[in-house]
């Protein structure tokens, strides 16, 4: 059984889902009625502070679904500091793989924004983003963090 909470943000309405005392999903829209818990209230508070520019690192228990490789990519994503970016190739080199599987794992990230897949760029530019709004949302998140200065 999982619980959800909702938050209106500059990148659209988010639905945050928790199960077994961990955040398991962040998605766009509102699919279920809210059932806030103390953990979800903390997640909402941290997301509000992030979007206000007052929080640079989330401190929440996370349990993203994914296979072993995807989990390794999610760990690497969490290590990218606020306001910084890297390329799919950079992550591929760290994990002894290729850029395409890194991109696929980023696209499968069930906890975007908190697990910052928006901080990963292609070698030649922006790259994709699987969240609502695609590249526009990625750009908005990067601008918020100051991590893509030539867009500002």
Q: Descriptors for this entry?
A:
5 helices; alpha+beta; globular; three-stranded antiparallel beta sheet; 152 residues; 2 domains; Arc Repressor Mutant, subunit A
Short description:
The chain is of the alpha+beta class and 152 residues long. 34% of the residues lie in helices and 18% in strands.
- Count the DSSP helices: 5
Task: Give a short account of the largest sheet.
Answer: 3 strands, antiparallel
Proportion in β-strands: 15-25%
Written as H for each helix and E for each strand, in order along the chain, the element string is EEEHHEHHEH
CATH architecture of the largest domain: Orthogonal Bundle
Tell me the CATH superfamily of the largest domain: Winged helix-like DNA-binding domain superfamily/Winged helix DNA-binding domain
Radius of gyration: 15 Å
**Helix content estimate:** 25-40%
Examine the coordinates and then state which fold CATH places here, giving the name of the CATH topology of the largest domain. Arc Repressor Mutant, subunit A
Subcellular location: Cytoplasm
Catalytic activity: a 4-O-methyl-thymidine in DNA + L-cysteinyl-[protein] = a thymidine in DNA + S-methyl-L-cysteinyl-[protein]; a 6-O-methyl-2'-deoxyguanosine in DNA + L-cysteinyl-[protein] = S-methyl-L-cysteinyl-[protein] + a 2'-deoxyguanosine in DNA
Keywords: Cytoplasm, DNA damage, DNA repair, Methyltransferase, Transferase
Pfam families: DNA_binding_1, Methyltransf_1N
